Amino acid sequence: PSTPPCQTRRFAPATLVARQAQWNADPPSPRSSEDKVGFALDERLEASSHLITTTDGIQVRLADDARYVWIVLVPERDGVSELHDLEATDRAALLDLATDLGVWMKTRFAADKINTAAIGNVVAQLHVHVVARHLGDAAWPAPIWGVGTPEERPEESRSGLIAEIADFLKTSRG
């Protein structure tokens, strides 16, 4: 029988005990905040966004789609695909950055809603989207992924937006 959509599937207690025993026998090694060895930005993220700056070991990138103000945050950590893969301090820094940007974007761009998401079904490398949404935008009210064709932001507009975001980060984060 299938699980109704409103219910979550739970592990049997024996499964949880087995997983805990495996964890205790072979715990994952902690990730160092200083460890960027082996980090390489996924080529799809690189091709579809522009580096604004790096802060606290997190790349801040502007997605190349003029229909939205869309920022992508990428922790510079090798082999990380989930939020829980990050060390607690790295995770806190990422979520704090996403929050700071979301608050600023909502005001600065008069957004009706800020969408913050880390999905990773297409690009497994951990990255967090922070998108300023407006009622009636190209995808409203649906998620932005897979809706329509991305529109390239003109160079002058892109440069100005990158400078504005970088300035916000510099003044707000020291």
Would you mind describing this structure in some detail?
With 174 residues, the protein is of the alpha+beta class. It contains four helices and five strands; from the N terminus they run ααβββαββα. The longest helix has 21 residues, at 88-108. The chain is globular.
Q: Which value, in Å, is the CA radius of gyration?
A: 19 Å
Helical amount: 25-40%
Shape: globular
As a percent range, the share of strand residues is: 15-25%
Distance between the termini: 55 Å
Q: Write down the secondary-structure element order.
A: HHEEEHEEH
The largest sheet is:
5 strands, antiparallel
Q: Point out poorly predicted stretches.
A: 1-24, 26-34
Number of H- or I-type helical stretches: 4
Question: Strands of the largest sheet, in order across it?
Answer: 1-2-3-5-4
Average residue-wise pLDDT: 84
Which class best fits the helix and strand makeup?
alpha+beta
Total strands: 5
How is this structure best summarized?
The chain is α+β, with helices and mostly antiparallel strands and 174 residues long.
Main attributes of the structure:
single chain; 174 residues; alpha+beta; 4 helices; 5 strands; globular
